[in-house]
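>> received
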Amino acid sequence: INAYEFAICDLAHANSGSPVPQTPESVQACATTTQVYNDAWQMCFLQNTRSQAFIDKVNDAKARLDDLPPKMAPFLFINNKFLVCDEPTMCIASRDAFGDTPLPQPGTLLQ
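>> returned
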């Protein structure tokens, strides 16, 4: 959940029109507040290096995306299936290489 909270905090600053723009300081403040400011995060953000485990996860996600029809970000996966959202607050299905499966309860990730 901390990664989710960090992403929301950071996106609040990155959003165009934000009263407080995204800066390196705002990113670090979000990381500290949400308790993701650890060695791996520092290595990525401060030194611009990634662990092999992170690189492997990104490559795995890219391989799964390559099997799907084109889709714009954000790329959300639940149980290794791509989450299909018609709009930022409404997700309706999961998708894999065989097609879409309607969600039992369409809605937001907060429901």
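>> The mean pLDDT is 81.
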